[in-house]
Amino acid sequence: MTLNGKVAIVTGASKGIGRSIARQLARDGAAVLLTARDAAALAGVVREIEVEGGQAALCALDLREQEAQERLVRTAVQSFGGIDIVVNNAGATKRGNFLALTDDEWADGFALKFFGSVRLTRAAWPLLKERAGSVVNIVGVGGRTPGAEFAIGGSVNAALLSFTKALAEVGVRDGVQVNAVNPGFVRTDRLDARLRKAAQEQGVSPAEAADRMVKSAGVTRLGEPEDIANLVAFIVSPQGRLLQGALIDIDGGQTKTI
């Protein structure tokens, strides 16, 4: 229970990576405030945490809205008395041909994942500073290695990696830990949908499509949400405090660049 007495906010916590992070932090002793837009899905995750003996609460909102972050911070303080950990996980961006992507799709990609993370971190910073807290940005390997079909996501992710480095310097001054995690291919609903589409196009099973993805990317395997959760739990634990401004790839070897 390395996080006993700590309070964590996890965004995008209703499913996938965010859900796994929230559950792991709770197992390690943190009280966790979960947020996403789907209140019913969040309530299900809260029940899972409570069944396992953990503490959790939810705050359903849309982080695209400019006042949402302040509300989230107030809810954390009202529910658990403060904030020690912020995990910025929310946000998915549209894939597609660059020439077909609209201004609205670009703006939406930045609104949730980038500006949602910036605003929440800013709103929580005074409380994190009081308690020598930690920020973890869940970004993605596209920020280091852009692709033609991932123009929005790569741009958003690169901006978040730069934001992480800049904020880490402020964190040295203020005593707040700031790091980023770059997942590769992880078994989420979104990846499973991609695999089903690929399987249909290639005339193979989803399992074969997954094997082909692994071989094509030159990786050890597809990741699981729990892989990311375990890394985040280590980063914010006492054993991970030397990490500052780190951009950690957890991708099975997908990132080939230095």
Rough shape?
A: globular
CATH fourth-tier homologous superfamily of the largest domain:
NAD(P)-binding Rossmann-like Domain
User: Kindly, what is the distance between the CA atoms of the first and last residues, rounded to a whole number of angstroms?
Assistant: 35 Å
The amount of helix comes to 40-55%
Rg from alpha-carbon coordinates: 18 Å
Secondary structure tally: strands: 7
CATH topology of the largest domain: Rossmann fold
Q: Which CATH architecture of the largest domain would you pick?
A: 3-Layer(aba) Sandwich
Please tally the helical runs, counting DSSP H or I stretches of 4 or more residues: 8
Mean pLDDT: 96
- The largest beta-sheet arranges its strands as 3-2-1-4-5-6-7
CATH class of the largest domain: Alpha Beta
Number of domains: 2
| Strand residue content | 5-15%
**Class derived from helix and strand content:** alpha/beta
**Largest sheet geometry:** 7 strands, parallel
Secondary-structure element string: EHEHEHEHEHEHHHE
Regions with little confidence, pLDDT below 50 for 5+ residues: none
Question: How do you describe this structure in short?
Answer:
By secondary structure, the protein is α/β, with parallel strands linked by helices. The chain has a 7-stranded parallel sheet with strand order 3-2-1-4-5-6-7, sandwiched between helices. Helices cover about 50% and strands about 15% of the residues.
